[in-house]
Specification:
Layout lengths: L6 E5 L9 H15 L3 E6 L12 E4 L2 E4 L2 E7 L4 H10 L3 E4 L4 H12 L4 E4 L17 H12 L4 E4 L2 H9 L6 E3 L16 H6 L8 E5 L8 H14 L4 E5 L5 H7 L4 E4 L3 H9 L3 E4 L8 H8 L4 E4 L4 H4 L6 E4 L4 H13 L1 H14 L5 H21 L9
Parallel strand pairs: 1-2, 1-6, 2-3, 6-7, 7-8, 8-9, 10-11, 10-13, 11-12, 13-14, 14-15
Antiparallel strand pairs: 4-5
Amino acid sequence: MQTSELRIALFTGNYNYVRDGANQALNRLVGYLLNQGAAVRIYSPRTDTPAFPSVGKVVGVPALALPGRAEYRAPLMIPPSVKRDIRDFQPNLFHVASPEILGHRAVTLAHKKDLPVVASVHTRFETYPRYYGLTFMEPVVEAMLRRFYRRCDAIFAPSESMAQLLREQRMNYDVGIWSRGVERDTFSPEVRDLGWRRSLGIADDEPVIGFVGRLVMEKGLDVFADAIDKLVQRGVKHRVLVIGEGPAREWFEGRLPQAVFVGFQKGDDLGRAVASSDMLFNPSVTETFGNVTLEAMAAGLPVVAAIATGSQSLVEDNVTGRLVRPGAISAFADALQHYCEDKDSRAAAGAAGRVASERFGWDAVNQELVDAYLRIVRQRMEHRPPSQRPR
C-alpha cells in the first residue's frame, strides 16, 4: 500500500478555532499528507472566527461551549449528515485526536465499519483535576481514558517519556511516537532583538525569564509565580516576560505585577519574543511534548522545566537546562538564579539546546506517523478474508 492510497478521517475537538500546539501539529500533518497524495477529511467544531486558516477540508460537527472555558467547544455527536459525508468519503483509517464525545462516537463508528482507528495523545487530561481542587478525580479520569484508548488499534505519544507513561498506565498495547518539529528559521538566536526589549522597558543587562503558552492554571502558573517570588526575596536581578494569552491572564498579572505581558504572538513575532528572552521557565506537568520547550531550545535558550512527560525527552539536565521535581519551588528558584547570575552557563546551555533541536524536523516526524498508518491499515487488511480485501 502507498501513501497516496490512504484516506484519513480525522476527528478532533479543536482543529483551528483556538490556537495551541496540538491543533497546529494536526494542521501540519494534514498538509504533509495532502502533499504526499493522501486524501484527508477533518471532522471538528467550526467557528466564524478561527484562530488561523485550516489546512484541508473541514466538516463541522455540533458543539457547545465548555462551562467556564467558553473559548473551547465540546463536540456533541456525529449527526446523520456527517455520517453520510463519512460514507461518501470512504476512509480506510480513522484518526481520533481527542478523547471526548466525538472521539468515542468515531471509535464506535470505525468498529461498525471494520476500519482501523488510531488516537494521538496531546495532553495529560488526568492531571487537570488537581488544578481545580479535584485531585480525587484523577484515578477516575485515568480509567475513562484507558477505556477510550484501549478501543483503538494503536495510540501515539509525542515523546518517549509520554509513551512510557502510557505503557505504564496500560492505555494500549501498541504505543508509538508521533513527535513534533520546530521551524529553526523562526526560532533562532539570530532573531534576538535588544531594541525590542528596550521598547518594553527591559534593560540589556537584565536577565529575562520567559513564559510562553496559554495562560491557564494547568500550565503551572501558580508554581511559576511562587518561584519568581523566591527570586524577588533573594534580591536576584531579573525580569519576567510573559508571551501568551488566556483566561488566567488577570490572575497572573496580579501575581506578577512587575512582569511584562506582551500577549499572544505568532510567526516571526513569536520567534523574536522567545529569542529575546534569556531562559524559558516551564513548570507545567500537563505537557505530552512541550512545543515551547523545543522552540526555546532552537532559539538558544536554557530551559528550566519540571521533571515531567515531554520535558524529560527534550531537556538534558545540566546540559541544555535544568529538570526540577514538580512543585519544588525553592529548587526551581535555585535553577533560575543560577542562569540569571552565570552568563557563561546560560550561554553554554543555550548553545547545547540549539544543537539538540536539530534532530526535530517536521517532515521526518510526520513521515514516521504515515509509516505507522500504512502498517496498521495493512495489518487490518491481512486479517480480512481475501474476498473482502480491496484491490
